[in-house]
Amino acid sequence: MAEDEHEHVRVAVVGSGFGGLGAAVRLRREGITDFVVLERADSVGGTWRDNSYPGCACDVPSHLYSFSFAPNPDWPRTFSGQQHIRAYLEHVTDVFGLRPHIRLNSEVTRMAWNGERLCWDIETSAGNLSADVVVSATGPLSDPKIPDIPGLDSFPGTVFHSARWDHDYDLTGKRVAMVGTGASAIQIVPSIQPVVGKLTLFQRTPPWVLPRVDRAISGAERWLHRQLPFTAQLRRGLLWGIRELQVQAFTKRPNELGFVEQLARRNMARAIKDPALRARLTPDYRIGCKRILLSSDYYPALARPNVDVVTGGLSEVRGSTLVAADGTTAEIDAIIFGTGFHVTDMPIAERVVGADGKTLAEVWKDGMEALRGASAAGFPNWMTIIGPNTGLGNSSMILMIESQLTYMADYIRQLDVLGGRVALDARPNAVRAWNHRVQERMKRTVWNTGGCTSWYLDANGRNTTIWPGTTSEFRRATRRVDLAEYDVLRAPARCDAAERQDAEVSA
Fold it and tell me: Key word Cytoplasm present in the record (predicted)?
């Protein structure tokens, strides 16, 4: 192949977590085999590959946190651990024959829209290619965020993020700082508390924590699910239905969540007997404003004598001394950041260049917005999985991913129906209208009215992350592509290397 030629595929999928693998399965089920999955790491799994910290597990029940088209009757626990979810994704990869399509160690460094040929020119760490359609499935929990703490660079000990766990570092007997109190932190704290010498939790905002009713799934249950698959479907349906009924309290009647707050207070009171510590751990915002966390061992761990809870968060590092906002100091050997991810400012957006030469990050500088959570104006034949306002506060993201995969499949069908070199570009007024409806609905939700600052909100205070409705509503909204919401672009040229070869033969 000549230097100016490169591989061309019909669809390029970016990322191999739930979204990327789901897209690959759906493409194959639609009869499309001319696609690749570009993965920057050396294995599949996305966030369930990256997050291998002690105690890592899902807070959504296993039978709901799996693909409807790939049920797993052998989940070992009601809430599965990271290793089991990662193994499930490897299993899906094998069962659906995805390995030949996957390009590991192929990080996308740039993708730019070619308006002349109506395709995407993609640069990766393993070489270049082009694609008619790009499906970006990098996910919002893929790039860790570490706050800019004065003096952190001079810290003489070990520093790492929960999503980049240093398994070579032995925490035994060490003085450890845990920075953050999110979903990762409440799993890490009880896992490492018994082995560390001293654990100092730097808490900026206390979370609401409910008991995690986890148990082993019996052999009899698993046998039943294998022999009678409809029983697993029934179990999944019940889990889904319960969560659908909860949605209105989050989206329309946040005051109804007061009862849930009482349950959380009782959960805390059972383990935390010290009134002063209980006061420090009690949130001052409505439950649900931040993600409700599930743990039955977080509070007991905080009550142990080798654990200190420091309020105000970490503000400065002076050598091996960590200083909290309230002036409290602690001598530390290792710092673990459980400070979340770049969710509303995803780094992949800086690498996507649209029709007018602007990056997606530039277009989204005032806030992310995409038509039906998938298509951004000015970025033809590009769609994202788990895009703006598709997140959930109380149910399984796999439900939302599958809805978006249905939208993706119909998008490609529409391209086939239109025929020729064709692309669809979301109309700006359609994107604005969709986003306006979403934001109007968001005004009443607990995420906007609950009195907290969460990672759901962007730098401008807008909630560009959460879907303000049920998963059923989103499924209906993404069942098919409405061509009236798109501009149809056409070009006579083909995008692949064959075009150039044909031109050379003609000459």
Answer: no
DSSP state of 110: E
Q: Are 176 and 196 in contact (CB under 8 A)?
A: yes
Q: How is residue 221 annotated by DSSP?
A: H
3-state secondary structure of 266: helix
**Beta-carbon-side half-sphere exposure of residue 449 (alpha carbons within 13 Å):** 17
CA–CA separation, 180 and 335 (whole Å) = 11
Q: How far apart are CA 268 and CA 258, in angstroms?
A: 15
pLDDT digits (tens, 9 = 90+) for 232-282: 999 999 999 999 999 999 999 998 899 999 999 999 999 999 999 999 999
What is the CATH number assigned to the segment(s) 152-213+238-337? 3.50.50.60
One of 3.40.50.300, 2.40.100.10, 3.50.50.60, 2.10.260.10 is the CATH number of 7-142+342-506, namely 3.50.50.60
Sign of CA dihedral 315, 321, 327, 328: positive
Asked if 370 and 430 touch (Cβ cutoff 8 Å), the reply is no
CA atoms of 131 and 121, how far apart (whole Å): 7
Handedness of CA 157, 163, 169, 170 (dihedral sign): positive
The CA distances from residue 182 to 340, 353, 452, in Å, are 8, 33, 14
In the chain, where are the structural domains located? 7-142+342-506, 152-213+238-337
Give tens-digit pLDDT for 272-320: 999 999 999 999 999 999 999 999 999 999 999 999 999 989 999 999 9
Do 152-213+238-337 and 7-142+342-506 have the same topology in CATH?
yes
Do residues 34 and 99 lie in contact, with contact meaning Cβ atoms separated by under 8 Å?
no
pTM here?
A: 0.94
Query: How far apart are the C-alpha atoms of 219 and 224, rounded to whole Å?
Result: 9
Question: What would the pLDDT profile of 353-394 be if each residue is shown by its tens digit?
Answer: 999 999 999 999 999 999 999 999 999 999 999 999 999 988
Closest to 476 in 3D by CA, of 399, 403, 395: 403
Q: Which amino acid is at 267?
A: N
Torsion of CA 13, 19, 23, 25, to 10 degrees: 120
* Residue 27: CA count within 13 A, CB half-sphere: 24
130 contacts 499 by C-beta, under 8 angstroms: no
Spatial distance between the Cα atoms of 261 and 7, rounded to a whole number of angstroms: 56
Do residues 493 and 502 lie in contact, with contact meaning Cβ atoms separated by under 8 Å?
A: no
Residues in the chain: 507
- Alpha carbons 378 and 215: distance in angstroms, whole number: 48
Q: What are the angstrom distances between the C-alpha of 140 and each of 58, 75, 182?
A: 16, 26, 15
Going by C-alpha positions, the residue among 106, 105, 118 that lies closest to residue 10 is 118
- What tokens does 418 get? 């239109």
